Write the structure tokens for this entry.
Amino acid sequence: MATLHGIAVSKGVVIGRAIVFDAGSRRMPRRTLPADRIDDELARFEAASVEAVDSLKRAHETAREEMGDEAARVFLFHLGMLQDKELVAPVRKMIRNQQVSAEYAVSEIFGQWERRFAASSDSMFQTKADDVRDLADRLVSTLLGETQGTIGDLTGMVVVGRDLTPSQTIEAARAGAAAIVTSLGGPTSHTAIVAKALHLPAIVGCSGVTRTVQSGDQLIVDADKGTLLVDPDEETLAEYAHIIEQRETYHLTLDEIAGLEAQTSDGVSIGLHGNIEFPDEISDVLRIGGSGVGLYRTEFLYLTSRTEPTEEEQYTAYARCVELLDGGPLTIRTLDLGADKYTQSREEIPERNPFLGCRSIRLSFHRIASFKTQLRAILRASRLGPLRIMFPLITSIEEFRRARLIVHDVMEDLAEEGQPITQTPPIGMMIEVPSAALLSEQFAREADFFSIGTNDLVQYTLAVDRTNERVAHLYQPTHPAVLQLIRQVVAAAQNHKVPVSCCGESAGDPEFALLLIGLGVRTLSATPDSIPALKRAVRSVDIRTCERIADKALTLDSAPEIATFIRDRARKIAPEAFDGRSDE
Ligand code: PEP
Ligand code: MG
């Protein structure tokens, strides 16, 4: 049995047989044409492009129905590429100057772009290599008169590939595939986004998978943890069959509690909100028992679009959120681009240390016009229903004041244009760097709300890159330094009656949630999937118990000690509420 590791981008556990897709780019043989055939060949290329545009429009429509507006925009992205002169003009030039077939020119030129993207040091460009390949496949298939979407039945199979394209991922899901595993790709690639939108368990960045796995091999895909087991022994199979069964029962019981109140056993309400990247995820949040959105990561609008989203595009997305929430809480975070999120795109000189560079609110200040465009869209949407504006990565009071002032400037602009905003939305901030946590008293006098972002707070407090596998063991949310900062922030918020929530990944961990509740946090915002388990945990404890857990945890010396302590206590209080996979 071999065990491989990758990045889990869409959760689930699956046992199935492998089918290995040859995901290499299709290389067409060079075919030279007589000079008098070149005009016809160019016309053939134009016709194929028109047909590809039509098929992309159709794919976009179907994908909207299956995955919602935002994820489906991947196809609009492809449409944009197909209309990009920089990409397409060299194909025509090659057909004309070298007198070659259109198929050959497409595979050559697109192949060059794909290699250029793949070799880029910028992770945002790297992930676009799949998109170029996807588009090349579509054009070549059209030129060859092949029909798209003709893969056979994949029911229950695990599709393994070097790097599946977004279209292949959709086709695989339609054909019944149970999971996908790829050796390349990152968490923000279009393929990862599509898998997540389709609820198809997926592991990407699983290096060595295409060398290790052959079609027909038995696999266990643990996309909760990002582990792939190849050719497992009987004992492991039985163990995982049990985990799958447990997971199913667990999810059934979680479904049952979706409609119940998120209240501790002594009657204190805890807000359970979802972190979303796309407006359509709100339906999932509400269906599984969440009551609002604590973090809308608006930078994902940029990921599915080739150019900067316009004010109208942004307004449509924000208005859709307000509409879907129907009066429920909505916190829209302004752009948090940079560092782990689509770093360095189009920067001539890449930053040496982007996590400490011009990211998040700093980038917004750097690009005031775009920042104002986003704020205009948010403020206009605020007329339709309640929403809050949140700034990321605030490190000093001047930054907060400056950002808030820009909101007021934009409100004045709107008023002058005859679109006044009669009620200023609450303006708050992420607490995700130690300086903000340490100065939370000062911030609490001015900010309307706080949201503690443990993902970055842990990284910046402990000096551990949150995306670096080599130091992953040092990334410890239960580190005493982190807990002390959280305690300080909550105390400042309470002093000034400023609402405080937590929206880092840790807020979605039921055991860590007890600690947060014990420290005084009353709203947790997490990935939608984690809401039911959080609700079950919340309902199984009372506030006093949580406070005792927090008090004791803060007396312990180290992160592992604290983690073990809260785990033991949680399981003692309510064993059934604290683990869907009790044999972990
Ligand atoms: C955080 O840093 O905790 C957070 C919620 O924001 P993001 O993960 O988007 O950086
Ligand atoms: Mg953050």
User: Anything to note?
Assistant: The chain has a mean pLDDT of 89. The chain has two domains: 2-21+152-230, 251-578. The longest helix spans residues 38-67. The radius of gyration is 25 Å.
